[in-house]
Amino acid sequence: MFTRPYLPFSALQTYFARLVLTAGFTVAVLAASPCQAEPVSRAVRAPHTITYDRYSLKLDGKRIFLYSGEIHPFRLPSPSVWRDVLDKIKAAGFTGISVYFDWGYHSPSPGKYDFTGIRNMDQFLDVANDVGLYVIARPGPYINAEVDGGGFPAWLAAQPGNLRSTDPLYLRWAYEWLGHIDAIIARHQLTNGTGSVIAYQVENEFYDPTAVGMQYMQDLKIKARADGITVPFTFNEANIGSTLFITGPGAVNLPGFDNYPQGFDPSNPEKWSQVPDFTVNRTLLKNSPLFSPEFGGGATDVWGGPGYQNCYELTNANYENVFYKSLIGQGLTMINFYMTYGGTSWGWLPYAGNASSFITAVYTSYDYGAAIREPRLLTDKYAEQKRIAYLLKAVAPITETDPVTTVTPPTNSAILQYTRENPKTKTAVYVLRHADATSTRDDSTHFSVETPDGHYASVPQQAGSALEIRGRDAKLLLANLNFKRAHLVYSTSELMTEADTGDVDQVVLYAPAGQHGETVLRFATAPTVEVLAGKVASTYDAATGDLRLNYVHEGLIRVQVAGPSGTLSLLIGDYAATARLWQPDLEDRQVLASGPYLVRSAKLVGDVIEVTGDLDAPTTLEVFAPQSVDRVVWNGYLVNAQRTRYGTLAAQLQGPVPVQLPSLNAWKFQFESYERNANFDDSAWTVANHLTTNNFNVPGTLPVLYEDDYGFHHGDVWYRGHFAATGNETGITLDGEGGVYGIYSVWLNGIFLGTQPSGEHTFDFPPAALRKGQGNVVAVLVMNMGHNESFSPFDNGRNTTRDPRGLRTALLQGDASALTWRIQGNLGGERVVDPARGWFNNGGLYGERNGWHLPLFDDGAWVRGDLPDRWASRRLPAGVGWYRTTFNLNLPENSDVPIGIDIDDPTALLYRALIFVNGWQMGIYANELGPQRTFPVQPGILNPHGLNTIAIAVWGEEGSANGIGSSGGLGKVQLVRFGNFSGGVPIDVVPAPQVSW
Ligand code: IPT
Question: Which of 203, 235, 338, 360 to mutate to test the pocket of ligand 1 (most atoms within 8 A of CB)?
Fold first, then answer.
């Protein structure tokens, strides 16, 4: 654990200067200790008014484009890196985030709530406010989200009441949750001036158009207002064109429509869809903007699926380009992308699934193929979103546009054009794409620009050039736009941003490399045009005042145009040249920085610009700042910056220090599953003898053996059924229920009877195993892969969270002997023994109940367990065995080295494994299913500067008593590095018990 004081430049000056040699360049260092990215607080403090009309949201009367990214704090259980991910979202120009709050993550048992440690949502919302992101708060009570129970706490499944309805037996619990979470959200509202929450979503995707559904929504709204929620209400309706909750009871202020055009099946990532039409909502939404609360930013994957790289490709940068720009072309001014950072469904958070649902199940990773990958990595999807987001920030007129219908269509009929115009400024917005969005053809066209500046019937005008639209590509073009120091008539290049750096107006334009570009600016008198880099042809027409620039996009072209109102610096790039361009938010000042992997913040202090960020390699940092600035501080170091011939400042920055991860060896091993044996002492276990249940699903036999009814909710659960044998018993019929991919293993008096997937199965007793006239024990280990969601709010769907887990049926065959049962899940059940890691961290394996997963557990008596290891050669039966090792990390200071744990083994072996890192369950592994074999582990869970412990609990699914046919064992386990960056954020190791078991 370490924290580093931030030394503002003034403080740096008081330190001794010293010189270090970095990558062949001399850098003056004024700091005694460097600093990692220090939060630049952009905190919003004064109370604000939030209003809206049919065009956009308005904050204190000023229109904003809400360009928002979805992130779930419960999928990032290391508060230090909340800031990292939020910095990254902010740095891409997003104006907001949308956040689900997971009821089940905060409530282990009826009446108990926890908002401390990794569950500290005040802290999360504080960071969002500090970073400068608006928040759409989505507290449910139901959230879906591919999380256990869809966000319903598992204990709720054992309570009476009709979920997601007006049933008072349900509402009393829903209100209890809202009472807690609303109080937190209310403290962070823009309307109070104490935070950045800008909107509040009521419930989640709710198709129930009946009186009950509408009243339920109305009840939740009344509750939220009573709890002090004063920001506008939103709702995420699934069906574009639905009138639900737009008027009448339950109506929200800002109705929105979810859409995932590419769907959720990543098996064919080349498959494309058509662009949905949100404009059908225009007639419905009279007084609120077009809004998509969830627009596909990636996709889910399932156990045994093709993996998240496919999800990424299914929703790649081209998809973003075409679909997101089309939404702007349709006039949306509020869009949230689901997900922007997916994260990790660590522990037992993943939703186990329902074979009939549109998403059957998810596994530990919730990477989602999103713009920021699970190890917090930036991608070309991120770069694409940044180009769009910067444009939206730079061009205020886009927040208020009407469609223009009287438009000459593009000359190429394969191209579709959305045309919009700001009614006040008459700025025109054109979005051009293939009418058939799936087309892979490269096309070219001319189009017509008609604004108060004039009528340009065929653009581009330059003979021999055309507007090129590649297959699966789109362009958002502008006309009649006032820059700070010049007027844009039109451009066939896309605008990324405009930054007034004080003396010049930096205007960044781009297009794919090799494409023609034409930009027309208007000046009353001929400007001077100086081409500083690249090739540009310019013509000035004194009659119109038009200065026309023609060029071919390649690298970074630089042109200075000096007119009567000042100098315009045009930076004309291709995609590569814009990917690493940054416009940190300085509120009243504007600067650009280019080169680094990430720029988190910038600050002007006198003649110094302080920049923070991350580097993935030695980097030339170029800073576009006022001419008065002549010194550059990078992450607390004064660097040697030179004035370039373009008037900018450039400095060579040293890349990250090379990092070698330790190899994992010296593994120890211990087999357990003692519970399978007849003589195991289960007298302290819970007696399972209920004859009734609140669960609507009728048990197959009595007593009720649903684990949730006995206070065991997550992970693996043991059952032991005792019976006195007559000798006629031939077997037992069991229905083990652990969700679609759940399994259960069964033993009689320690003799293994088999492992089956969820569902009913009869296990035959080997005659020799039965003890006639004596006590016998059937032992069952059930893997509960999580509770189902309650996706459909109709009666038959709203209670699917109650789908039973554990045993539903247990019936001896051959003789009706009575079975008496005991059950044991996680240690303590609903009485949480490890509040820091919490109730999703552990199930009921012997090792978990005895702390074998914890860092300082003494495994001195265990045997050697070099990997790969095969239980067949150890003559071990089916059951559970544990591997443990430790390793030291000593990662460079001020660095971010995302690390994961990788398991490599042939998939023929049937085993499952739980991966614990420093006691935290960071992965559920299914060797036979995959696809996840690499498990990112965030810093804070990992100690970057100290000892770390890995414990892996393996459940060998098959094998005889002497180990023949044993499927247990463990393949090679290694640490993998997803990158190496200098910079990062300060990391605090998450406090959690070491050995308090
Ligand atoms: C939408 C849910 O609102 C969201 O919680 C999540 O489950 C998402 O789906 C899929 O990742 S529901 C919509 C797609 C019908």
Answer: 338
CB 153 within 8 Å of CB 104:
yes
Per-residue pLDDT tens digits for 82-118 = 999 999 999 999 999 999 999 999 999 999 999 999 9
Decide if pLDDT at 28 tops 60.
no
Chain-centre distance of CA 612, in angstroms?
Answer: 24
- Strand (E) positions, 731-836? 731-737, 743-748, 751-757, 759-764, 775-784, 806-813, 820-824
- Which residue's C-alpha comes closest to atom 4 of ligand 1? 145
CB 196 within 8 A of CB 44: yes
CA of 144 to the centre of ligand 1 (A): 6
Query: Average of pLDDT values for 216-231?
Result: 98
CB atoms within 10 A of CB 691: 8
Q: Which two tokens stand for residue 478?
A: 């502008």
Placement of tokens 């003056």 in the chain: 28
Length of the chain: 997
Element (H, E) at 226: helix 211-226
Exposed (0-12), middle (13-18) or buried (19+): which is 404, by Cβ within 10 Å? middle
Amino acid at 705: L
CA separation for the pair 759, 742 (Å, rounded) = 9
CA-to-CA distance for 992 and 986, rounded, in angstroms?
18
Q: Where are the alpha helices (DSSP H) in 535-596?
A: 575-579
Structure token digits, residue 79: 């508060």
Q: How far apart are CA 379 and CA 311, in angstroms?
A: 13
> Beta strand pairing status for 879-890 and 972-977?
unpaired
The 10 Å Cβ neighbour count of residue 452 is 10
Q: Which residues line ligand 1 (CB under 6 A)?
A: 143-146, 204-205, 236, 238, 258, 260, 294, 300, 359
Q: From the alpha carbon of 100, which atom of ligand 1 is closest?
A: 5
The two tokens of residue 696 are: 């609507």
Cα 326-330-333 angle, rounded to 5 deg: 95
Ligand 1 atom nearest residue 258's Cα: 13
pLDDT grade for 681, boundaries at 50, 70 and 90: very high
Give the ligand 1 atom nearest the CA of 791: 12
Distance, CA of 109 to CA of 751 (rounded, Å):
36
C-alpha–C-alpha distance, residues 167 and 173, integer Å:
10
Q: Give the count of beta carbons closer than 10 Å to the beta carbon of residue 146.
A: 25
Question: Among 129, 134, 137, 131, which Cα is nearest to 58's?
Answer: 134
